[in-house]
Amino acid sequence: MRTLPHRLCVALIGLSACVAALSPASAQGVYDDWSSVKAPAAPALSHITVDPSTTALLVLDLARQTCHPDTRPRCVAMLPRVAKMLALAREKKITVIHTLGGASTPADVWPEAAMQAGEPLFKSGPDKFLNTDLEKTLRDKGIKTVICIGAAAHGAVLHTASSAALRGFDVVVPVDLMASDTPYAEQYAAWHLVNAPRLGERVKLTQLSWIN
Questions:
Q1: Does the model's pTM come out above 0.85?
Q2: Among 94, 85, 65, 52, which Cα is nearest to 175's?
């Protein structure tokens, strides 16, 4: 039951105006609080030991169109680490799967992320499970864990990692192997992956040097 002040307020100025007058400013929406929002503490990183027989490395959209020196210099700077991750995966016999988006072709892939014979390639939008056989390929190979790296931390990495987790895969995301056009996009993607409902129980953040 409403208290007397609420009833008087409604009677005098109407319900919607009353709600606005009696509500805290933050109730108007995040846009009103935008400049005062403080970033949360950085999520914890985990040391990861992979089982090569049940792990796949998803190399997402590392082509010149999506990892361009002018628009995503952070991605280009990441490429030497990508080469190290690929070398580690191939040495351990981890399944390596590549993706591309838009009009990109294998010829557009940076040399550090180049495909080798027998490594599958899928083309799709930000969610690489959408309208592809990626899930079937992973299931057929007995994959239980995917490591997601690549361009567009807020795009292909975020959406493909999320989609994998929601499909029941365990997901590893090295924070130094996902890039965007700004550090903020990388930050919020990392936060989202371990805090969103049903994702946090499946996703672990790590860094290249902590993967064994």
A1: yes
A2: 85
Spell out the alpha helix ranges (H) of 141-205. 158-166, 183-195
What residues make up the domain containing 122? 52-210
96-154 pLDDT, tens per residue? 999 999 999 999 999 999 999 999 999 999 999 999 999 999 999 999 999 999 999 99
For a pLDDT cut of 90, what percent of the chain falls above it?
Answer: 84
Cα–Cα distances in Å, from 112 out to 70, 75, 77, 126? 18, 12, 11, 21
Amino acid letter for position 195: N
Q: How many residues does the chain have?
A: 212
User: pLDDT for 166-178, tens place per residue?
Assistant: 999 999 999 999 9
C-alpha dist (Å) from residue 87 to 109, 115, 152, 165: 16, 12, 22, 25
CATH number of domain containing 152: 3.40.50.850
Q: How far apart are the first and last CA of the chain?
A: 60
Let me know if residue 43 belongs to a domain.
Answer: no
Number of Cα atoms under 13 Å in the Cβ half of residue 52:
9
Query: Pairing relation of β-strands 170-174 and 203-206?
Result: parallel
Question: 164 and 197 in contact (C-beta within 8 Å)?
Answer: no
